[in-house]
Amino acid sequence: MTMRRISQGEWRADREAFDRAVAETPDISRFCSSQTWSAAARAHLLSLGEGNEDEDEEKDDGEAEIRLRLPASAIIGDTAIWRSDDAAHWLVFGRSPWGYWQPFESAWMFSCPLVGPDPLESVRGLREIVSADRDLTPGFAIGGLPRGQLLHRVLRRFDEAGGFRQYREFPATDCLAIDLADGGVEAWLARRSKKFRRSLRAAERRCREAGLEIEAFEPGGIADPTLFDRLLALQPRTAKWASGTDIFQVPNYRDFYREVFDGLNREGRLRMLVATRDGEDVAHIFGGVFAGEYRGLQMSYAEEFASLGVGNWLQLENLRRRADEGVALYDLGMESEYKLRWADRPLPRLVAYVVP
User: Fold this and answer.
1) Chain centroid offset of residue 54 CA
2) What span, in angstroms and rounded, lies between the C-alpha atoms of 291 and 310?
3) Same domain (yes/no): 30, 104
4) How many CA atoms within 13 Å lie on the side-chain side of 230?
5) Where residue 224 falls among pLDDT bands split at 50, 70, 90?
6) In which domain, by residue range, is 235 found?
7) Residue 78 burial (C-beta neighbours within 10 Å; 0-12, 13-18, 19+)
8) CATH at 254
């Protein structure tokens, strides 16, 4: 397999081909490895990609070789991106503040930088690329590694065979998932406890009796450029905001989510439900769809409505709608205590640090 290095601008322009390869990569978090998530992370998180991209691409390659300890031929604008000639396999890395290479999204390490239908080919491609100058090649952090699955097993086999100079594994952010492919919501409900099912029915009844209604932003609608600001307007009324733990209180994360949200909105892949009473927003849940999967992103509600169970109501209604549109996997996002009652199974992840 021949790999060709490309710039970040070329990677963005090849979005359709890249996302198609992501959709065909086994076991990874496909939504968080897609370009929508990764490009926004590169632009806004951990100071990566800040500033003018064109200026980055004009940096002197010789200077970069000394600073980054990667052959100058592999560097374009502090990114190390390669694609195969048939666009089936991709390697997408950005420079970390410490000089080694990491996924574009390294805040949670949901994103996997080795993309393609054959993990063995991806790992071989990485080794071949750096083999020309092994002494100058730093390590690569491979995030979003599905524990126990094919890519993980391939990396371990390479290590056991002496194929890497260094190989170490570290814990990453695990997620939780609901399976909707077989039987949809009714089958999922049957797997829950009687107590939990009763609590869901009670939450739905209380919300409707209190006069709450659901406004849905579904596929086929017209993208509303003011929708994210409408979402932000609710946040100061939440318990998370009062405690100072709301992610939207951090400018970098707020800008990151705005770019992801607006991209999904434009592309028709945003899924959002807003609970209202007398025309006033009191709660919302939103996420995005990609390759037959739904990835939950954020859910919030005004604290004065917490006792109604409005969060449970929105989550259940969202599940119903996603099942109706054919979503097979409902990714709840990172593990938390309340999500354990909803989840069918974990999605365990690792980070592997590799020096080829």
Assistant:
1) 26
2) 29
3) yes
4) 21
5) confident
6) 176-334
7) buried
8) 3.40.630.30
pTM for this structure? 0.88
Collapsing DSSP to helix, strand or coil, 151 comes out as: helix
Residue 151 phi, psi (nearest 5): -60, -45
If asked whether residues 166 and 184 sit together in one domain, one would say no
Q: What is the dihedral of CA 140, 146, 147, 152, to 10 degrees?
A: -50
Residue 303: both structure tokens together: 């604290």
Q: Are 349 and 172 in contact (CB under 8 A)?
A: yes
Residues 197 and 168 both lie in one domain: no
Structure tokens at 65: 């070789």
pLDDT in tens, 52-69: 333 333 333 333 332 334
Count of the separate structural domains present in the chain: 2
Contact predicate 147/110, CB 8 Å: no
Q: Identify the H or E element spanning 285.
A: strand 280-290
In the block, tokens 């939440």 appear at 238
- For residues 133 and 54, membership in a common domain is answered with yes
